[in-house]
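Handout, section 4.2: multi-component inputs.
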Amino acid sequence: QITLKESGPTLVKPTQTLTLTCTFSGFSLSTSGVGVGWIRQPPGKALEWLALIYWDDDKRYSPSLKSRLTITKDTSKNQVVLTMTNMDPVDTATYYCAHRYGSGSFFGYWGQGTLVTVSS
Amino acid sequence: QTVVTQEPSLTVSPGGTVTLTCASSTGAVTSGYYPNWFQQKPGQAPRALIYSTSNKHSWTPARFSGSLLGGKAALTLSGVQPEDEAEYYCLLYYGGAVVFGGGTKLTVL
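Output:
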């Protein structure tokens, strides 16, 4: 059974750096073809893909946010960490992590999401 | 910047059939964009329905189907149920990056 859960601060101040952790079970990030991604959703708005990391440490970022994002993995801890610098109120959103596996299949399994509010 | 466009809203009667589409600003959507479809209900995380154009996950109800239609990816719901009222998102793959569509709010009335 694949599960993912996001954790991190619920409130950050403008200009601060956000660090979110995705802790997962039911799969290994050392298995060929497996990836974990981050997606966010501002209140009442659409989903936005942020980043993906694969079993071989290949990393992909949204072009519009690439300069602010870093994604890393700790295979031994079954965790993926996303950092986003220079937070702004427009970054207020629910942040999800999700599992990716297989050709053409993206994000078959999702975490419950964590709401991050950016406010002074 | 690549934009993926979906119908903002659609309405369908219970038992009816409805098709949602997903277009790319780069041109015709092909199987190489690996279209994926997701359903999201209020207060819930998205749920994957379709991957790689037309493949269903083990949990996807049979009334959902995916295809390519007129240069777009399409999600068809046949025999719509009241519980299908939700927001639907498509996702397209652009050689490493992925982009979600803006979502279609499906109302069952």
